Amino acid sequence: QVQVVESGGGLVQPGGSLRLSCAASGSNFVINAMGWYRQAPGKQRELVAAITRGGTTNYGDSVKGRFTVSGDNGVNTVYLQMNSLNPEDTAVYSCIARGDQGGEEHDYWGQGTQVTVSS
Fold it and tell me: Closest Cα to residue 57, out of 70, 66, 47?
């Protein structure tokens, strides 16, 4: 059983900041990478940011320069620091943990956390 739990969403004014956290845990599960995706109403899910166990990061074009992903404990816990938020960042943010379990690669998703940017 692998659990992925996000926290830190909420309501913020335009120009403000939020920090999301995601923790993954489970037996016999070696995490290779964790990431954040988001989906706004009526839009497709898109990559926000990802980080590998080796520390390599990747960002969606719309958040580059504003968002920073980081991890600790071998990326079992990751953080998404979101600065200069604007209304277009409003979405449900979901965390994904990708890793090896039983010799196969698996993806596990969190339940998602709402981020709303509004005045």
Answer: 70
Residue pLDDT, tens place only, 34-54 = 999 999 999 999 999 999 999
CA proximity to 24, closest of 82, 94, 89: 94
In the chain, which residues have pLDDT < 50? Answer: none
* Cα–Cα distance for residue pair 77/118, rounded to 1 Å: 28
How far apart are alpha carbons 34 and 29 in whole angstroms?
Answer: 13
22 exposure class (CB count in 10 Å sphere: 0-12, 13-18, 19+): buried
Question: The tokens of 94 are what?
Answer: 């979901």
Average pLDDT, the chain: 95
Q: Please, are residues 16 and 109 in contact by the beta-carbon 8 Å criterion?
A: no
Is the Cβ–Cβ distance between 59 and 114 less than 8 Å?
A: no
User: In angstroms, rounded to a whole number, what is the distance separating the alpha carbons of residues 76 and 51?
Assistant: 11
